[in-house]
Amino acid sequence: MSTTPTDPMEFIKSLWGNTGMPLPGLVTPTLDTNELDKRITDLKAVEGWLKTNLGMLQMTIQSLEMQRATLSAFQAISQSASSPEAQANPFANPALWPWNFMQNAGQPPAADASGTAEAAAPEAAKGKDKKK
Q1: Tens of pLDDT along 71-103?
Q2: 16, 29 in Cβ contact below 8 A?
Q3: CA-to-CA dists, residue 56 to 50, 60, 78, 94, angstroms
């Protein structure tokens, strides 16, 4: 054995440096603190960039969901407005109430309404006569 003391850091560097085959994506450990600080700074920059992109992606997804909900609401409103039930209801639009009232004012009362009122009056009179 040799009597000269060896530097343990040099020994470790020689072991890691002489593997012979560099592997892609393999982070070789370094013992230089400046190099480690540089890598940490670079990775923190990448982390910040990824967080920014994630935030923009989440906002884009949320805006698309809001757009879909708005379009669904408009489609539901247009379908309900075009249905015959909405057109048949004279009380649906309060602004047209005076117009509908004036259109019906010149017409004679419906025959069904007058016929049922006359038929109900004699039956009511018969009911009173039976009680006496």
Answers
A1: 999 998 888 777 666 556 666 677 777 777 777
A2: yes
A3: 10, 6, 33, 46
Question: What would the DSSP string read from start to end of 39-62?
Answer: HHHHHHHHHHHHHHHHHHHHHHHH
Token pair of 125 as six digits: 């009179």
Which two three-digit tokens encode residue 61? 């997804």
Query: Is the distance from CB of 85 to CB of 91 less than 8 angstroms?
Result: no
Tally Cβ neighbours within 10 Å of residue 30: 13
Which of 58-67, 87-96, 103-112, 113-122 reaches the highest mean pLDDT? 58-67
DSSP state of 103: H
Cβ-based neighbours of 39, under 8 Å, separated by 6 or more: 30
